[in-house]
Prior knowledge:
By secondary structure, this protein is mainly alpha-helical. It has helices spanning about 5-20, 30-40, 45-50, 55-60, 65-85, 90-95, 95-110, 115-135, 140-165, 170, 190-210, 220-240, 245-260, 265-270, 270-290, 295-300, 310-320, 335-345, 360-390, 395-410, 420-430, 440-445, and strands at about 175, 180-185, 460-465, 465.
Amino acid sequence: MPPFLGLLVYFVLMLVLLRWSKDPADSPALWVPVIWLLIMSSRLLSQWLGLVQTSAATAFEEGSALDRAVFLLLIILGLRILTTRNLNWAELFARNSGLMLFLVFTLASVMWSDFPYISFKRWFRDLGTYVMVLVVLSDPHPLIAISTVIRRFSSIVLFLSLILIKYYPGMAIVYDPWLGKPEYVGATTSKNMLGVVCLISGLFYFWDTLGRWPERKTPEARRVLVANIALMAVTWKLLMLSNSATSQGCLFLGCLIMMIVRSRWAKANPRLVTTGIPVGLAGLALLDFLFDLSSTVAGLFGRDPTLTGRTGIWDAVLAVQTNPLIGVGYQSFWMGGRLAAVWSSLNAWFPLSEAHNGYLETYLNLGFIGLLLLIVFMLSSCRTVFRQIVVSPHFASFSVAFWTITVFYNLTESAFGASLLWFVLLLCAIVVPLSAEVPWAVVQRGRGTAPQRYMNRPVHVLTEKGVR
């Protein structure tokens, strides 16, 4: 098939699948966060147009005026949408105090950064992530909005990646300069990013399929299930091509968690689930710290015991002098002399720009104080998502799974901050209170034949009297 025809088939399939899975309550405003996620999950507009810097280090420090304009426009549109929503801002900040403390500290850290202007630009850009999350969660039908946003961005990126790998390999496949080994990146910028897209997509479509399966005899559910199966097949193929071990392991773990939370045993023993999963995670973390469990498991599965060189990266970044209490400033570690020092110590031939450990990355940039505030937020978000097992069991299986894999994923990759995983975690963990109760009639209006399971809000419980 000629490449042009392949692209045409891609667009037709994408439109058909999006049409089949469209919900009557979808809001046009959701395209703003979808576009934001498309940029985060694929490539910057300047990269698609070929307007990239010749030096990787220069690219990290300077950025692109075109990309800044696009981000600024999306942030302005997001804020404009929020002004039309009846958010209770004071309660919003109070109910998410852990996250607010972390954000305030990241902003304050700009002052002691070696590159304060660049650090502030990155902080402001990343603030857009939180604006987009609020656009989704403040929607009149937040659970439908979450499903719509994830489905739209993932299906577009998945099919585009498949087409690019098939017909435009020069854009979608990169090669190891030493070994000549191909790495499949698709529409993204790295194999790990492609793995993250597949991880989020696989978890979402698995969760959505489980929820719709009891209604599989209805025409509406049958169409969406067909779309889910097709997208899961594409997801699995791309995940295997990406060869991202972290994403593969987290996808398996997330699906397992979903099945546990949705089981009859979990419904009969919700307290055991809410305590058992966090305690199990803490136990695994302790075993890994004491006995280097991750390297042992990697060796058992035929993987590099050094986690593909990550242990060497961790040693190299820890050898660089930083302020252990407050770090070097928001997203400032991988700039200037520190960047050159790490590249030199590792003899890096590739543009390394992360520590491949979210907790270590946070420590380098924000010190022990920033890491402590991050842990406080993760603990508070744990309480939020595990509460949903009782009040919103359908969404709980998704949110609990995502919280769990975020904890695990950051052991070997950096995903705290402006990343796809962080975005989805915020969708599960942020509490968005409204300034007034939403009458049940308003909630029902425009839903059409939306399934009954979507009546559960991710952060509140809908009752006949309104939002509780």
